[in-house]
Amino acid sequence: MQAAPGLFSHRKYWAQRFGVAPFLPMSRAEMDALGWDSCDVILVTGDAYIDHPSFGMALVGRLLEAQGFRVGIIAQPDWTSAEDFRRLGRPNLYFGVTAGNMDSMVNRYTADRRMRSDDAYTPGGEGGRRPDRSVIVYAQRAREAFGDVPIVIGGIEASLRRIAHYDYWQEKVRRSILLDAKADLLLYGNAERALVELTHRLARGEPIDGIRDLRGTALVSRGLPEGHVEIDSTHVDTPGRVDAHPDPYAMTPSGTASADETTGAAPVTLHRPRIDRGHGVIRLPSWEQVRDDPVLYAHASRILHLETNPGNARALVQRHGERDVWINPPPIPLTTKEMDAVYELPYRRAPHPAYGETKIPAWEMIRFSITIQRGCFGGCTFCSITEHEGRIIQNRSEDSVIHEIETIRDQVPGFTGVISDLGGPTANMYRLACKSREIEAVCRRLSCVYPDICKNLGTDHGPLVRLYRRAREVKGVKKILIGSGVRYDLAVRSPEYVKELVSHHVGGYLKIAPEHTESGPLSKMMKPGIDSYYRFRELFEKFSREAGKEQYLIPYFIAAHPGTTDLDMLNLALWLKANDFRPDQVQAFLPSPMALATAMYHTGKNPLHRVNRTSEDVPVVRGLRQRRLHKAFLRYHDPENWPLLREALKRMGRADLIGNGKHHLIPSWQPAGTGKAVAENARTPTRSAQPPKTAPQRRRPAPKRPRK
């Protein structure tokens, strides 16, 4: 993998003379107090401003401040006019626009498209403080306020919409957000490198429309740069002889095509021209093509995900009308030294004083937690973490983590000695990496742990165990909990880690995510089989007994995921009943932009394998009633779901599961006031609405699943 300039290697901008701001200013009065006549960069965000590295705008703002720039923040502006966007005056370099830590549509709507009543990133948890598709709205208002100022968009909402994408809420394929937001540049993923270099280049006087070469960026283009070779991937293979052309799916620079899956034709040797990856660009099917042809959409999704390794990814280009959206290769991951420096910037670790004593739920949740790593090589198809943060794990050093624990102990009000989490996207990928940098640089696997853990992946949990032990020794720390999800198929490779975790870092319950029990949906999620869960559960229970602790696993499951049938959900419900699990809250699949599972949902095709007209079809749960049925199977114990389940079980020929015995899934009686009982009792007043005396008593429900 190529080297990148050090994140802090640039000469600092002249405005460093103003020093460090107590909080990045949100008003002209604060700017005046700092001696500023203007801001170099103004960041617009859909979240409340909390000066903590877990909140994107604080991290980005402090990073730019460390480069010498004056940074202001406009948090949760009134988007009904441009007036609020003039609050800090005209920025000297650009507006940086983001929806916040969450996609605004996911933040505002449930998987059933119902509007949420609350927002964890808003003071008081108040809902409705950000618009739908916030990036587009904010960018347009910023343009209204100062028409000549460049607009740079980023964050997860922009990142996952950088190409033409299926929009679940409108049920259509929308074009790249770059065009709808009328932005000058899009930064995707963890964009520190691109952000720092972009800001310094703009400060040196480069026009933004001339900055085309930054990794981790997308821009609007009108033609290929000189020296680039285009690889046409605007169509899918059809049965028969394959024309000789560069293969966008290829795992190696050259090779032999496999026999055609449909006709069984003999393999065809592909004589591909040698193309320098640094100057090869893959042309994806256009927005108009993927909008009108689901198969081409699935094909484009597969190519995008194969081009995500910073070591070998090529640029992508996609036509939208008369213009191209050009996507440069992903950013080079941060080194440990750079990660430490980013997380050790002078954050105040508190909400901006403008919010007074009003509580902000997201802040209350993470105020005593610490990020130890970024990225995830799991590749779960329904998850946006890999698409956004990448598959290569970026780690902090032990010393940096310990220093942050001491900072929390000494500076954060309300600390009682309990660290709520040492983790990241997953709890136990800290310092796990490919054993060979050379292999890592050319690998194009979508996951390092599916269908099996790669033989080249190091799974030594020793560094994480040492970090846990050292963290427990910090004076003033009474308990360190692990709140991030544990990747249990990795954990079982290190019984020492499981023992350490179970003996010292579980607060009664540990969340893990098998997501399902059946092979059909699991294969479309790229999740391990249920046998891995059993092995982890055995170790968990063994070490809990040895530690003399009564502790429980809380498994999470997804309903209505592509590849799931009614029978799969019934089998999962029977498994839950047999294992005495009664989930209190359940998660229904939400098709987020750019996810591979979303491509399955929209197209009915499987982009985990080569896509063509006759490739594998994926069963998809679409209608609201069917989605509710799948959720009802997970909450089989809730009387409100029993009428729907009775109807489904009869239709499936499994009426034998309706009854009042222990082997039945749901009872034949209905409690008064639930489901359809009221209406049925009105028609048949002699029918009893009470359970028989032999009915089992309801068990205590498991704790609610925390909001992600």
Q: What would your notes on this structure say?
A:
By secondary structure, this protein is an alpha/beta fold. Among the domains are: 14-213, Response regulator (Rossmann fold), CATH 3.40.50.2300; 229-252 and 274-321, no CATH class; 368-505, 2-Layer Sandwich (Transcription Regulator spoIIAA). It has a ten-stranded mixed sheet, with helices on both faces. Strands 23-24-25 form a three-stranded parallel sheet. Strands 2-16 form a two-stranded antiparallel ribbon. Helix 15 (462-472) runs parallel beside helix 17. The longest helix has 17 residues, at 530-546. The radius of gyration is 27 Å and the shape is globular. The model is unreliable at 238-246, 251-275 and 677-708 (pLDDT under 50).
The helical percent reads 25-40%
Q: What global shape is seen? A: globular
Q: What's the CATH topology label of the domain at 14-213?
A: Rossmann fold
CATH architecture of the domain at 14-213: 3-Layer(aba) Sandwich
Round the mean pLDDT to the nearest integer and report it.
Answer: 90
Put simply, the count of helices is 24
End-to-end span in angstroms? 33 Å
**Could you name the ranges where pLDDT drops below 50 across 5 or more consecutive residues?**
238-246, 251-275, 677-708
The strand order across the widest sheet is 3-1-4-5-8-9-15-14-13-10
What's the gyration radius in Å? 27 Å
Largest sheet report: 10 strands, mixed
**Name of the CATH homologous superfamily of the domain at 14-213:** Response regulator
Question: What share of the residues does DSSP label as strand, in percent?
Answer: 5-15%
**Got a strand count?**
25
Which structural class best describes the helix and strand composition? alpha/beta
The CATH class assignment of the domain at 14-213 is Alpha Beta
